[in-house]
Amino acid sequence: MKRRDLILEKNRPYHIVVRAVERRTIFPSEEERARFAVQMYVANVGIPVNLNRQNVKVASAALLQGQTISSSIMVQKHDPLVTFFSFALVGNHYHFGLIGSFDGAISKYLQKLNIGFSKFFNLKHRRNGSLFDTRFKAI
């Protein structure tokens, strides 16, 4: 099976690795890490509403402590696409342990997450183009 034809099956655990282009540092500050943590949650269940700096720091701290976040930050649109069993944010890439809720859910989730974070990162750092490699590794 060709790599692009790979459908990540539901209810199976996968280790996902996504790298930044040019080995670029994508988490240079606390703000970027907090923003990414919030977007991890938002991409999984809905759409963002108001992700300003102050809201992101509060929401990130709440999520990492197992609390819910304010509805002023996001609107829940659907059931979770994936279930996390682990994650690690590294300077120029990230690792996720995920289980998809349906066939192809992991790919859909990663697309939503990467596009959303790329828009924020590119605007903040005045750059254009892709932030992440086109392919992710799934084991």
Notes on the structure:
With 139 residues, this protein is α+β, with helices and mostly antiparallel strands. It has three helices and six strands, in the order βαβαβββαβ. It has helices at 30-45, 53-64, 105-124; strands spanning 13-19, 46-48, 74-76, 82-90, 93-100, 137-138. The strands form two sheets. The protein has a four-stranded antiparallel β-sheet. Strands 2-3 form a two-stranded antiparallel ribbon. A hairpin with a 2-residue loop joins β4 (82-90) and β5 (93-100). The longest helix has 20 residues, at 105-124. It starts with 12 loop residues before the first strand and ends with a strand. The mean pLDDT is 88.
In a nutshell, what does this entry contain?
It is built from three helices and six strands. With 139 residues, it is of the alpha+beta class. α1 packs antiparallel against α3 (105-124).
Task: List its salient traits.
alpha+beta, four-stranded antiparallel β-sheet, 23% strand, 139 residues
List the helices and strands and how they pair.
Elements: E1 13-19, H1 30-45, E2 46-48, H2 53-64, E3 74-76, E4 82-90, E5 93-100, H3 105-124, E6 137-138
Antiparallel strand pairs: 1-5, 1-6, 2-3, 4-5
Helix pairs in contact: 1-2, 1-3
Strand order of the largest sheet: 4-5-1-6
Give the quaternary arrangement of the chains: single chain
How many H/I helices? 3
**Structural Rg:** 15 Å
Describe the global form. globular
Mean pLDDT, all residues: 88
- Order of SSEs, N→C? EHEHEEEHE
Secondary structure tally: strands: 6
Structural class: alpha+beta
Low-confidence stretches: none
The level of helicity is 25-40%
Cα end-to-end separation: 15 Å
Strand content: 15-25%
User: Biggest sheet: strands, sense, closure?
Assistant: 4 strands, antiparallel
